[in-house]
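Working notes for the structural subgroup meeting. M.R. asked for a predicted model of this chain before we commit to crystallization trials. I am recording the input and output together here so anyone reviewing the notebook later can reproduce the run.

Input as submitted:
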Amino acid sequence: MEPQMPYDDVAWEQSDNVSDNWLLQFLDIDVKRSIAKFILKHDSGDDPEFTILRKGSFNITLQMKYTYSATNIRFSQPGAILFPEEKVKNEVAVMRYISDQTSIPVPFILHSGTKEESPLNLSPFIMMSHIEHTTTMYDALNTPGCPNEERGVLDPNINEDQLGMLYTQLAKTLLQLSKSEFPKIGSLDQVDDFSWEVTSRPLSMNMNELVRLGTLPRSKLPPLEATFKTASSYIETLAQLNIQHLLYQRNDAVQSADDCRRKFVARQLFYMLARDKKLSLPCCENGPFKLWCDDFRPANILLNENMHIAGVVDWEFTYAGPVEFSYAPPWWLLIEKPEYWSEGIEDWAREFDRRLKTFLTAMRRCEDIDTQHSQLRLSDQMQRSWESGDFWVVYAILHSFAFDAIYWQKIDRRFFGPTETDDPSEAWKERLNLLGENQKAEMERLVTRKLEEMEDRVLVWDPDEYTEAFRQGLMKRREEKVKEDKESHQKAVEGPQI
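Returned structure, recorded in token form:
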């Protein structure tokens, strides 16, 4: 059994193709000049110097540096972000909330706008203050000498005191986020200068990736205006999305007939658990719900020369989420995800358990100082989540491509008891009796369809209008280039006209 479900490689190629070609325009001096003028229209300083700062997974950031400060402008990348306007709107509201309601240092937003309001109609953007820093939490925790192109992993030889100091700062930030309280699950909207409300669906990183790399139709996501009053209703919706993902990913979703059956059974059983409210905590069913950031991780935490947090960035996939999400200990304590761990999920869990003790010790020290956590401690809830296995339920909910291995190795036996086989990849055969006849018939129809789909590779993709418009323009330019080359070749063959 593979550690994670492969992405649809045809869609992935399209996504990267659009994103890579869109980024090329930032090498054009006229484009950079227009962006620089746009920044100076809304900001000013001595001796401005303009440069491309960095290209991330979802955005490109450019910077105007002054004598004593700097301003960044960040554009969403078509092909990478498939909900660009919604993403930027949500992030602006969240960053302003965090700045006003917590002590977490975040960039100050100077200006933001839609694609139409951006320079040269490039993309939705945020213009914000630059936070000076020396390094990131990722670099401080990562194994020394790890090449940039390789996936990082927590330094196995890191000094325990140093690790405790870094974990303490991370714990303080999570404790700040856990103080937030909202009556519904969803994305924030700023009502006035000092108040925010949950008014729209919780746009998650997983939803973006399901559409981008799992070819899930956008129509299968919760409607834009959808919010959730209970944790169980939201978790049931996400469990249903995992089923839809298997149904709709056109390429690379299954490797064989039995692989398809195994994935179908896992998703049906997980959905049954969600429907029966066995994946959520009764005490947290109605909230109050906590602010949750899908992309909160060491790479987005900036450190100063004293190795203290200078700022936290990249809040685009942040929303009021189930309390269970906040109660789960952070997977990024090891930097690497369990599905990518070279020695497998079980070895990841053993190493995580060891480092979690250090992290929870650090968090308890913070809680001892913070009187607001004197009764219900986040550290106790994280320990309970890990020991009970709720951590794995939350992880499977938030990481659809990693769902299968997590389910069969960490969730199935907890709820449905032991199996005769010790091989998790074969356990599905002993769970067929839990499905109804209609479900079994649906499974066999899906197997037939998926095997037929394996015979060819077709792009079935539902991107946003900006990504699709750029993709169509790219295809048109390539067709014109092919036509020009063909005409030039024909003229060369025919020779000069007499």
